[in-house]
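If your schedule permits, I should be very grateful for your opinion on a structural question. The matter concerns a single protein, recorded as an amino acid sequence and a row of C-alpha cells. Could you please explain, in whatever detail you think fit, how the C-alpha cells follow from the sequence? I set the record out below, with my sincere thanks for your time.

——
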Amino acid sequence: MAQFRFPNLDGLRFIGAALVVIWHTEKTRNTLGLGRSEHLEHWALLGHLGVQLFFVLSGFLITWLLLAEEQRSGRIHVRQFLMRRVLRIWPLYFLMVLLALFVIPHFALLRTPGVSAEEVIRDWPHKLLLFVLFLPTLVPDLTNGVPDSAHLWSIGTEEYFYALWPFLLVAFKRMRPLLILGVFIGWPLLNMALGHWELNGAKAVIAAAAFWRNFNIDAMAVGAAMAWLLRRQGWVLRVLLDGRFAVTSALATLLVLLQSDWIAAVGTRIIVVLFGVLVLNLAAAPKAAHLLEQPILRYLGRISYGIYVYHPPLIVLVLTLLERAGMLRNSWAYPAIFLLTIAVAGLSHRFFERPFLALRRKYQPVPEGGAA
C-alpha cells in the first residue's frame, strides 16, 4: 500500500512550534533585561496553547495510525509501535538533555541568564535519572532545575501517552468512545483532587500532582476522538466537516486567540476542542486540502521537533549578540532567531535524526496517516 499522509498537518505542527518560540523569545528578552513586552502574558498563553496544539495533533495521528494498523492486520502491534516512537523521540530528547546538563551551562552566550554552570550540574545524577524516566516535569520540583531543558516537559508527557495509549485502546476495544470521554472528563477531576491533597504536603502527592498537572492526556484524547470519528464515518463527522461549521469554528478559534481575556473567558479546554475540530478539517475536509501544503511549510513541519527542542539556547545566543551589536529590534531578532533555529534543526534532521528514522522501517511503520 502506498504511503498516505494527511495534508496540512506538517504546516500546523510548525505553527504550534512557532508560537512556543515567540513566547520564549519574549520571555527571554524580559529575563535578560532587554525590555519587557507589552503582551508578555498573552504570548505566554499562546505558547501554552501551541503545546496543546501539539498534543491534539499527537492524539489524532497516533490514534489514527493504531486504528489503521488494527483494521489492516487485525490487531495493534504494540511493541513495533513503541519502537517506532523510541527511534523518533529518544535520540534528540537525550541529546538535548546531555547538552543542557553538561555543555550549554559552560557557555555564557547560550545558557539561561542568572544561572551558573555549577548550579545546573549540582546533583546531576538525580536530575539525569528523572530525565531518563521521562519525568522532566519533576526536575524543578525535586531539584534546583535545568533551565535549558525545562521545555522538554512536553516530551515526557507525550512519552507516557505513547506508552499507555495502545494498551488502553486494546483493553477498551469495545468501549473506545467511553474511554476517550472518560479521559477528557477524568483528567481535570483528578487534577483538582491532587491539588487538594497536595495541600497536606506529602512528598509523593506533591510529585504526583506536579506530574499530572502537565500530563495533558485530555488534549490528546480530543485528537483521539477526532481520529475515531474519522474512522467511523458517521453523522457527527459530517457535521464537523460541514463547510459552514468548519469556517465558524476556525473564525471562533482565531478571534479567541487574539485576546488574552477571551482565552481566559473561554477556557483552555474549550480551545483544545476547537483545535481538534481544526485538525480534523485540515486533515480530512477536501476544500481545506491545500491550505498549509506549501513546500516550505511541509519542510518546516517535518523538522518542527528539532525547532522545538533546540530553540531556547539559540534565542539566548541571538538576543545577546544583537544586544551587544546595538541591533536589538524585533525586525532583526525574530528573523535571526527563526533562521538560526531552522538551520540547526535542519542539520540535525539530516545528519543526526535521519539514520534513526530510517531504522523505523524494521518495525513495520504503518502506511496510513502520515508522520507522527
